[in-house]
Amino acid sequence: MSTRRVVITGVGVLAPGGIGVKNFWSLLSEGRTATRRVSFFDPTPFRSQVAAEIDFDPELFGLSPQEIRRMDRSAQLAVVATAEAVADSGLDIQTLDPYRVGVALGSAVGATMGLDQEYRVVSDGGRQDLVDHQYAVPHLYNYLVPSSSAAEVAWKVGAQGPTTVVSTGCTSGIDAVGYAVEVIREGSAQVMITGATDAPISPITLACFDAIKATTPRNDDPEHASRPFDGTRNGFVLGEGSAIFVLEELDSARRRGAHIYAEIAGYTSRCNAFHMTGLRPDGLEMAEAISVALDQARINATDIDYINAHGSGTKQNDRHETAAFKLSLGEHARHVPVSSIKSMVGHSLGAIGSIEIAASVLAMAENVVPPTANLHTPDPECDLDYVPLTARDWPTDTVLTVGSGFGGFQSAMVLTRPERRPL
Amino acid sequence: MSATTVVTGLGVVSPNGLGAAPYWDATRAGKSGIGRVTRFDPSQYPARLAGEVQGFVAEDHLTGRMIVQTDHMTRMALVAADWALADAAIEPRGLDGYDMGVVTASSAGGFEFGQGELRKLWSRGSQHVSAYQSFAWFYAVNSGQISIRHGMKGPSGVVVSDQAGGLDALAQARRQIRGGTRLMVSGAVDATICPWGWVAQLAAGRMSTSDQPARAYLPFDADARGHVPGEGGAILVLEEAGAAALRGARIYGEIAGYGATFDPRDTVGGTGLHKAIEIALADAGLRASQVDVVFADAAGIPELDRAEADAIGAVFGPRGVPVTAPKTMTGRLSCGAGALDTATALLAIRDSIIPPTVNIEPAADYDLDLVTGRGRPTPVRTALVLARGYGGFNSALVVRARNPHATGPQAGPDHTERTR
Amino acid sequence: MTARQFTLEDLKRILIECAGADEAVDLDGEILDEGFEAIGYESLAILETGGRIETEYEVCLDEAVLSVHATPRELIAAVNELLTVAA
Fold first, then answer.
1. A155 to chain C nearest CA, in Å?
2. Per the UniProt entry, what is one GO biological process (chain A) (predicted)?
3. pLDDT digit string (tens) for B129-145?
4. Contacts B–C by Cβ distance under 8 A
5. Where are the domains of chain C?
6. DSSP C34
7. Residue C50's closest chain A neighbor by CA?
8. Is pLDDT at B372 greater than 50 in this prediction?
């Protein structure tokens, strides 16, 4: 087996209420929420009218009018987050062999916003079944196949190595980074630009989550609508955003004196093979993913200092996840702080896994654990330490971050400081 | 030393044949499945031909519960997966769920299902959108549904890299086998032959506007004028070689090498594809001279055909290797193509025949040894499969015959050391 | 004006449209007091069915009757109660 060790040396984030790593961390560490009534369109007809939106002007980030026109919002977010991550890494990609630099970008729903808008145009507001190609925008194919967003990222940085989108629903943001780790470990790339993006706040997405009552109907109090682990939780709040990382081998990162945020010491994905949207309450498969990720990292359960939970705020998820932590970590589950940043930035589907990895490495950098906002009412079935309301100063060397997604995907990743790992 | 990955089962859904055996019979014989679109009335569109899967009746294979919640492409993928497992003589329910994973490729998800729900949304209101929309459209749907159907709980995933995705999925599945998973179901089945998908594909400007099925999709021909889209693909069962041998499985061949690159914006040169081929051959520990056939991506667009011919020529020399494009009989299946070509390559190895590229008159200046007209009987030990995705994705996959006596990892350079 | 009625036959029709007729489920059997899960319908099937009833009959159903543990009798009664109010 390969002994290549993979580390994160650059981070870029575009999250609701947190454009850029600095603002993102301020939001989290201050326990502020970025959820609000949907402003992108009139949400009145919808059951859930709340979302975590980014006030994002692509022009301010230097995207040209052409780029703005051809890219769906999800691709725009990724390209902007990429620029921050690459600058942060201090890596001059132009000096590398471009075939040794790849891209793995997570996304659950691709160019949904663009597709929704353009469908409305070519179908004349849904009136025509045989939609009219003469009204189609020239870049419609880029919306059809979301690998276009990975292409945009690769072009932006000059990557010519293995490039793809990883799309495993709401675990995409973990799985894309896990994919990138595997590509570096096997020697197929030296540097991977990875992370995830999604911009799903469109009528079709709201409607489909309305139909399965997965999103919260707490429309009268948008700022406090996302309530993971709280006894009054009644669904998640849709979000959007992107987090991008520069991944490279530990040895080369050390040689160039790079700042190392964390080593990705363990990653696993499992499937529950149970239901496309439902979760069994026992959390068995997520527990298995966590255990295997810990084995791979050669880290004991008791060494985990913080768990960044999936914590979507649905009844089912938070119970499922709590059970999984108990099953995989045993007694330690009761002693380790667990929190869900979805309470503040919402659930950006495929992107959130990467945004949560970003939160995890920032927690390590600051030795501060972000809180779970809006957690006031205990739920007897969710009885761990969820760091309610306020961030906590906490020595954080090793973080477990997990995700759970439609299709049954369960993913776990262990992040640690390289010097903490006995090898 | 990495585990060796072998293919032990094939499930094929193709415009010219439903099931691996009918598909292979048709393909060897040069029988095309391209015709006028029947799934909707294409009269008003500039392109009207497609490779549609014929005779697929979902109700014959799937329950009503499954049919209401799935797009056409998911139904075909589920059936292809069933057939692949049956072909491999695998009864998944008898195995440990964590020992089996699913990695598929997607390009546009369940686009036809999505079209129906978008129509309901904009014509009737959001309350009319289906509960199934939350996953029937999304790209992960086939992996999720296959996993649930067969109790597969191991490492799974989905890759999206347009037409290159089919090969990228097989490579990712091989990574999981190398990581210790015993069995993977992998490949891709794709379909976007619905008005909304058609219009989105037209926007890329690469579709043929010919109405003559035998003159519409002519890769490497002087009359190349775009491609005909198709639907379908293949699902394969991949196993760790030792485990497959232990259970006495019939082995089609080994996934021996893989390479992927990406092109800079607005370039159509063959440099990236050339590089991907070199990486795949090095990964397989093979010299170019050991490759018996190349399954081309075959874009059917002159500058893209030129780029591919240049890449093949740079590696193998002028007319240095037989090249074929059986997709001239099916149309381009988007991410289904790489998986179907891989299945075809394994059948070519089994039966020592290279299936033909139909309808084309090779343009002399490409300097390719194209297998045209009828299949070419010849021993095939090693095949190279190429796939390119819109935007610059290049993937290359090497499959080779498996020495029936070898059970463990094969001798050769350690995969992980090849690029050092 | 007399209230519209929602019958077992209506429910069966909508269940088949929305959830498919699974070979294993005998909708003509005595199903009125079986939980939906017991007669072969999981959560999505019930949500889809509930959504269809809501749009077709212009009612808004309580989440409690859209559970896999609810029975057809309970769902039918809930719809009819809302129809009476609406009328």
1. 41
2. fatty acid elongation
3. 999 999 999 999 999 99
4. 37
5. 8-86
6. S
7. A211
8. yes
